[in-house]
Amino acid sequence: MNEATIALLLAVVAFLYASVGHGGGSGYIAVMTLLGFAPEVVRPTALLLNLFVSAMAFVQFARAGHFRWKLFWPFAIASVPMAWIGARIHLDVVVYKRILAVCLIIAVARLLGFFGGGDERKEMPGLAIALAIGAVLGLVSGMIGIGGGVLLSPLLLVFGWSTAKESAAVSAAFIFVNSAAGLISVAVSKGLSMFGPDHLIWIAAALAGGSLGAYIGAQRFSQLRLRQVLGIVLLLASFKLFFA
User: Fold this and answer.
1) Residue 179 near residue 50, CB atoms below 8 Å
2) Any idea where the domains of the chain sit in the sequence?
3) N-term to C-term CA, the chain
4) Which residues, other chains included, contact 117 with Cβ-Cβ below 8 Å and sequence gap of 6+?
5) What average pLDDT is seen over the chain?
6) CA nearest 214: which of 103, 1, 52, 37?
7) CA-wise closest residue to 211 among 65, 68, 62, 54
8) CA pair distance 215, 202, nearest whole angstrom
9) What is the pLDDT of residues 136-184, one digit of tens each?
10) Positive or negative: CA dihedral 219, 108, 132, 160
């Protein structure tokens, strides 16, 4: 598959994920894994793209007034060091694909709205609960190369800790700090030689798609139909990864 097609696929993933405040890590990983890229390339690439797209999504949702610092920091303070540790854990390829498949199924459920519309907000979680959740999500995020927002946002919605757009804003910030921690950890242990000229093209594509998706998700209208299409695609990818 040529570079233009890969870039287009990454841009589409970024657009759809950013519309719900996600960096797209699980989507990038699914695309690159199904195209035959090795986990050693896929994980740092997903973290790198996550970093840019989640930052763009956060800016859009924060500008629209949806970010809640008090909800963000208890999860983030525990997740960042664990994401650093997780990025240093090398998983067996089969185990890696199984974990990714599970994360994709969760992403599908989130994209299709199975965790509720997020129209009401209840009490915030206790500090101990938030710290524990953040630590677990950070570790998993670092191990497979995602920011963890796809795992955090369903929890925020299911337990009523945030509205849908608040979940998007908090998840975007959560993804950014975890992706940064994981990426720095990988760079320290392996150096920057894993990144090449192709990554500049992929970053540009992801930024283009992500900026448009984040703007639409934060300012305009629901991308329900597009998210449903992405959900179906990711569901098929998850089955392929799980049974490969």
Assistant:
1) yes
2) 3-243
3) 20
4) 164
5) 83
6) 52
7) 54
8) 20
9) 999 988 888 888 888 888 888 878 888 878 888 899 999 999 999 999 9
10) positive
